[in-house]
Amino acid sequence: MNEEVNFFNKNGYLVLEHFFPKQAIALVLKEAKSVFLRQFIEKKYIMPCALEDLDDAQFNNFLYRLFEEDLECLTNCGKQVQHLISLHTLSLDAKIVDLLQRMGLKSPIVSTRPVLYFNHPKLAKQKVFHTVDAHQDWRSMQGSLNAVVIWIPLVDINKALGALEILPQSHLDGLRTDHIENGFGMVALTDEEKENLIAVELNAGDALLFSSFLIHQSGDNITDMPRWSCHFRYNDLEEETFIQRKFAHPYLYKPMEELITKDFPTINDLSKIYS
């Protein structure tokens, strides 16, 4: 493990092959897709069926159709998949806690809730929603200096599918974010740095651990398939500057004040649930 720690400290990242059981990853993906399937059925894109009854091409076509016909519905599905129990369970796996402690986070704590992505140009109105240029995660986290991110593919992700591209050792250059774009701390790269980017191809079950200061960006997805992935962020409660900065926390979670569905629910709606 000392060799891995030294590699991480020097380069700012660590590839962890076969880190998670494939069935755990498959469960997260299945539950995420099932959220969308319920709406495909509701909209009568397809008759009631199980997820296994659809091949990838059929599912993706329905997904792209939903984006074109009802963006609000697709967006709400995207919000719901962030709260899957399987996703949150994975983010708290004992293997992760042990890894974080071995990598130097003495008292690891969740920075923000897990994030699950399903990226494709056909599912975005702006480029930043499917392909994020060079950025650092610390600018949005603003937590401990040894904060880390664990990036996890939910499918096998190669260059064609938009494998994450990283700039080794860039975590040692400090905070280089020059502006915020949709929550991402963007970084301007030199031509030489662009040449030194490395695409990290990963399979489902693998994981990529990297410093929150490591500069990275999305690869271009040139396939017909979405890039399904998730990432988890962690701070260290024992990191000195984090304590001195009163455990700075930049995330704001609050409910909408207005009623989303007008005149809902009625007494009749509730009686159907509790009869």
From TrEMBL:
Entry keyword set: Dioxygenase, Oxidoreductase
Top-level taxon of the source organism: Bacteria
Gene3D superfamilies listed in its UniProt record: q2cbj1_9rhob like domain
Cofactors that this protein relies on: Fe(2+)
Protein known as: Phytanoyl-CoA dioxygenase family protein
Pfam families (alphabetical): PhyH
InterPro entries: Phytyl_CoA_dOase-like
Species this chain originates from: Flavobacterium buctense
Annotated GO MF terms: dioxygenase activity
